[in-house]
Amino acid sequence: MGKYFVRRLIEMIITLFLIATATFFLLEAVPGDPLSERADKLAPTLRENLYAKYGLDKPMMERYIITMKGICVGDFGESFVYAGQTVEGLIKDRLPVSARLGIQQVALGVTVGLLLGVLAAMKRGTIADYLVIALSVLLISVPHLIFGLLLQKVFAGNLQWFPTIGWPAGKDLWFGGWQYTVLPTLTGCFTYIATYARLLKTSMLDVINQDYVLTAESKGLSRIQVIRRHILRNSFVPVITQLPMSIAMCITGSFFIESIFSIPGIGQYYVTAVNNQDLSIIMGETVILAALYIVVLFITDLLYVAVDPRIRITGKGR
Amino acid sequence: MNKFKKCMALVLTGAMAFSLLAGCGGDGGTQVSTAGGNGSTSGQQINLRAATFGNNYDVQDMGWRWMMAECYEGLMRNVADENGDKFEFAGAESMDVSDDGLVYTFHLRENAKWSDGEPVTAHDYEYAWKRLLNPANAYDYASFIFNVVGAEEYYNGTGSVDDVAVKATDDYTFEVTLKVADPTFQSKLVATPLYPTREDIAEAAGDNWGKDWTLCVYNGPFAMTALVEDNSMTWTKNEYYWNAENVKLEQINWYCVPENATAATMFDNGQLDVLDASGEYIAKYEQKAENGELQSMDVEYPSTGMLCFDHKNGGLSGLMKNVNIRKAISYSIDREEMVSAVYGRYSAAYGLVSPAITFDGESYRSLAGDVIKTEYDSYAGDSAKLKELFQKGLDELGVTTPMSDIKLTLLSYGSTTENQLEREYIQQSLQQNLGITVELNTVGDSEMFIAKRDALDFDIFVSSWSSDYNDPMDFLNILTTGTYSSYGLYSNTEYDNMANSLTGVQDSAVRLETYKNMENKLLVEDCAVAPIYYADKHFYYQNWVQDFRTSSFGASQELYIAYIDGK
Amino acid sequence: MPELTPDKFKIIGYSKDEANRIDRPTISYWQDAWRRLRKNPVAMSALIVLCILVVMVIIGPLIKGYDYETMNIPLKNLSPSSDYWFGTDNLGRDLFSRIWVGARASLIIAILATALKLIIGTVYGALMAHFGGWVDELLMRIIEVINSIPSLLVTILIMLVLGNNLFALLVALSITAWCNTARQVRGMIKQLRTSEYVYAAEVLGASHWHIISKHYIPNMLGILILDTATAIPMFIFTEAGLSFLGIGLQAPAISLGVLIAMGQQNMDFYPSQLFFPCLILCIIVMAFNLLGDGLRDALDPRLRQ
Predict the structure, then answer these.
(1) Do A137 and C285 touch (CB under 8 A)?
(2) What are phi and psi of B348, to 5 degrees?
(3) pTM of the entire structure?
(4) What mean pLDDT is predicted for residues B401-405?
(5) Considering only residues 39 to 98 of chain B, which have any Cβ-Cβ distance to chain A shorter than 8 Å?
(6) Could you tell me if the ipTM is greater than 0.90?
(7) CB contact under 8 A, B24 and A95
């Protein structure tokens, strides 16, 4: 077991190194640089000084080494485009905001999705089943931007039930200020509703045809008992193993939802940084998100072991 | 075993959730980032929208003009009233100019104070100007004062900071010596890079200067008091401001609202007091303003949009060298139709210098007229005549390719509907009027656009110029040889000579005549660029907002005399 | 429960011939799948809708005879009418024609990207399963790296490097998508290799080709068909999402995503410009989803009757 952990840890570090390298050279391959827009209207001497100030006058390999050294000590550097913005500040100020939004979306989306999934599986082939499919397709077909703007217009604009924009901060950062979170959460939760409704439905249909369900039914257990004790329990394996990934992905924020509701999260910032070719911010966010992803992947593997009796951890990898 | 596994599953899920929370760790402060949550009792507060925040508090960087012009103050202030923009003394009470126009002496206001109560002195100005020129700081706007004795030498590393002729002769007298007399110098004084900076504060902040607003002091009518990035910002009245008794607003709340539709919803609900509208929203609010439900203000903005051509190689097609071909392209575009269909605002441009630029107190455009209008009118909408003009250009170049086989490349970027309509409109206009093929080369972002443009990978591209100070020269200068690489590399000795002939000339009649000749040379003789639109802004504001102002070179939304009445 | 007594049973006779008779005709897995799919009214109607859509994206732009590119400013922003069934856009172009041209682009992009995903994924997965050992480890590590970088970043950067064109869009869309297919194929082949019936076939002296064609391919086709049915709507979505960020096809080329993004900016004033492209997108996605569900039921051997 200990060996396994060490092995995974080394693998993670190698993966992160590869990701940082790939990100750096991908960004290098893009024509232009983060300062070109600013330097565009400058005289040559002014331009040279500007590039020297940000260290962009150095050759590529030298900058690569500087960047990688920085990553090793956790210093990603300062934004090229927005003075004073750093990755550390981003994690401290923006990540919690995106995280709360994402977690609320997942919590609501998964709950409703699972209920709908059970309904669709139990009433398979009926109107209810098709309604669930139609609803989930309909709701994920409408882009977040449009859906969010519509919700905002109706519930914040016309009915004035909820505030138009804003997000709780300070002591309300995690709990409180719920009215601000309703519309953004609603906008984003449908992705999860659709995903989990279908996931659970598929998995339940698999389980329903298993022999032990037949046995349970022929034992004379009531339908409710069969569903609760045999079907649901066993069909939750894929749901539980999918969940960590959803949580990891949800906290990275959503560009459009954050933009519509003026939520100071990281999704909006990331897209802006990519568009500005803001190397230090992109690098920092990428490495951190990738690290998060890898850790979650690891936890998912452990969860598999925990919930699926057929899998065991061995020292020899999977 | 089974039970153990279940426990493990729970623990792992819990641990993950916890690690997420712990990793994020809120700071538990008492910031409020929610709309309408900031309570000011007096009701003298105003709610405004910005599409993005600037996050830059270093005045020398001019990163964020609309914030800096309200929270800081320089020697002069650009204000606007019913009669248009004008300069007023602000940090300075008066100014003496020597007869030869070289020495400027500013007498500073002795009651001007920073938001920590310290007086604003001439040393603050001296420090700021020298800071601007320090090559280590690499400020974009250092060239603004290269005309000061010793300035350019210091910046280029050939001179010393002590030789820069900006000097605080006493606490309240600031003296600047220029190399040559320059009538445009005064119009640069409202620009934020020339605002004062406190040496003690800036040096103490070190590398964080201009990046962290909590380290800043302000000398303007308002001071920044709260900020949540990408969400909201609060300015409170600066009690130490020298004219604080005439500042009526107690608090200004800015909301960062990127989506126009969201801003419109908030404005309709009264959550925003002022809206800078665009597109279809203008028609909607114009109607409301006519019904008296709103107030409106349309102002010219010193920016001109234009088509640029490759003058160096003649573009990918090699055809852009010919003036008749450039003219055929320019006159194929129905500017009136384009501004209404594509932009839904702005006005058709028949000259380069924006009408927002004033000369001797009058709009430069009213003095210079629409330079290409007459010629444009003789071709407008007449496809046969335009084709003839284009063909004439081909003949002059000795090109025998039939026009239907000619292919031009239009380089552009940007993803908004306006960007898309703009390039499609130009493409369609040229194709329909000239019978040529126009290929759109659309790149992802401005950095790539610049890279492609500098590689001369185009025939035509769309660009615009926004002026930094109020003088026609700032527009005309963009096409002098070697100034910018960003307008198609036009280079003409005659034009350069006309620009150079103005050095040190103070006679406004001579200047005006030269400006007119330059614009004529540029647009009528050479068609170096094809101006498309003059930008403007359409502000709509609630009936309870009084004395709202806008200005071209200061804060676009001027609030220092605004107040709320009848809300 | 009613009691069973001997008098409830009767002898109906039995002969040796009857014992060996096969009542039903033998049908292959695929015949059975098709039979079951045909019996599923929802899946069949989805299939019919898809066929109609395919016909429409081919002939749709020709029905009204308007050019989808040529602008006509005096006719801009018209509401739906008998001349312009879906109205016109902000440069006065017929929205009906534009939607079918856009849907055509969206479908082509989705189908090509899916094909790319399947081909790369299958080959990669097969290589992993075939070689195993360190090759498998290395290839798996590459997948992990690709999956760990946020896909939005990869997509945007690829588009920036390669430019805004169809080829770049296909590469950007499929560069992360194939990983999943590769994993599935790898798992499937590994499972098949150790399965009893493949082992039995090998022991009985079946050729490699026989094993591949009779056992590997049919078994894998099932997952690949399902993969296709889910990937196509996903690609249509992703492409539409990218259009909102200004990445993807550029004018004059249009896709449903571009039309929706354009319509969104006018949604307060001309909702029809947003509604119709959204509607068509919805119909396409829903048809693929329902067909996919039907296919899954039809291809699942455990549901065989």
Answers:
(1) yes
(2) -65, 135
(3) 0.81
(4) 88
(5) 55-56, 58, 61, 63
(6) no
(7) yes
